[in-house]
Amino acid sequence: MGCAGSKPRVDESGKKLRKPKPWKHTQPLTPAQLKQMRDEFWDTAPHYGGQKEIWDALRAATEADLPLAQTIVDSAGVIVSNSDLTLCYDERGAKYELPKYVLSEPTNLIPVG
């Protein structure tokens, strides 16, 4: 039983996620080009090391809203080093680095239409 003013313990894996900071790609991208880059990354991500299940959880988290993404990474046991998900670890210490283009859209995305 804790004191009235005590706070619940938050371990390192419980770091609260936040939206990535705005970023700009070296060249303007169309939505189709951005999708292709993302698909290529996720298709090759398991070859960078780590567990496929963690890569799958990270992909699901990047495609979800923040509260659901938080639940996904917490449930998968992902240790979030950078709260924007650019750097994470699994419980075995394997490193997972995510490029900004899988986390959000660039500021210089070319609108369709």
Automatic annotation (TrEMBL):
PANTHER family: UBIQUITIN DOMAIN CONTAINING 1 PROTEIN-RELATED (PTHR13609). Coiled coil: none annotated. It comes from Brachypodium distachyon (Purple false brome). This is DC-UbP/UBTD2 N-terminal domain-containing protein. Residues 15-110 form the DC-UbP/UBTD2 N-terminal domain. Residues 1-30 are annotated as: Disordered.
